[in-house]
User: What shape does this take?
Amino acid sequence: MKAYVFPGQGAQFPGMGKDIYKNSEVAKKLFNKANDILEFSITNIMFGDDAEALKQTKVTQPAIFLHSVILAKVLGNSFHPEMVAGHSLGEFSALVSAKYLSFEDGLKLVSKRAISMQKACEKNPSTMAVVLGLKNEIVEAICSKIDEVVVPANYNCPGQLVISGSEKGINIACQKLTEVGARRALKLPVGGAFHSPLMEPARKELESAIDDTEFNKGVCPIYQNVTATAITDPDKINKNLKKQLTGSVMWTQTMQQMVSDGLTSVTEVGPGKVLQGLFKKVDRKIPTESASLQSTI
Assistant: This one.
């Protein structure tokens, strides 16, 4: 079975999407529509060379979403997913590309998500750290014993788990995890504790926006972050999406489940190749590729 997967925050780069815009009338219309919906010219930032402007959360998340979703649209008839998934923010791209959400509704939710997360970060100074070389169970056990908010946030691949929490909690966790043999326990340059209880104010804001959004029947199953299982029921998808901001991204488990369900190839749609690398850590034999504009021109 062919899977299409969609990257999350961190995959952005200056100039992203410019080639798609130049080579496709469909893309041009959608990018221009996005500028209208967002009420600022995100294309000027995406297509420019100001990396700092692109790092603003209110820009980064819609930019990655637009790059992914518009590329999937431009692929046209060659886009035939049998299963989809997206890492964190990428779940919204996957939902639009598999037709569970309209382009307009997906972009509005992503924009709301980005702004709500930024506010939550300002309210609760917090951070994240990547832990390499330990079993998940060891990381989970150590986090659970710290008297601060510290939780597993992103199960990226076997031996790589990102933790999320208060500044103090993450500092304590990094020290303890290093002591028990982590190859690395390194704080990340992020503005807050994504996928942790500290995102609760953002979750509440996003939940009301999700409640006001229509979910449709999709073209294939989506493997959602909080369950790591194939879902097709729009009501269940809605409920799972509401839990995503404070829940863990079960990406390792998602990849393993896809393999169990008959995965034969992976195409990453959007900027970067991070997800292809993670799939190789699960099963080196699975062919992976980036979605290419060339095949559509």
Notes: Residues 125-187 form a domain with the Alpha-Beta Plaits fold (CATH 3.30.70.250). The mean pLDDT is 95.
